Amino acid sequence: MKWLDTLDIAIALDEAHPEVDPQYVRFTDLRQWVCGLADFNDSPDGCNERILEAIQMAWLEERD
Question: What does the alpha-carbon distance between residue 35 and residue 38 come to, in Å, rounded to a whole number?
Answer without folding.
Answer: 8
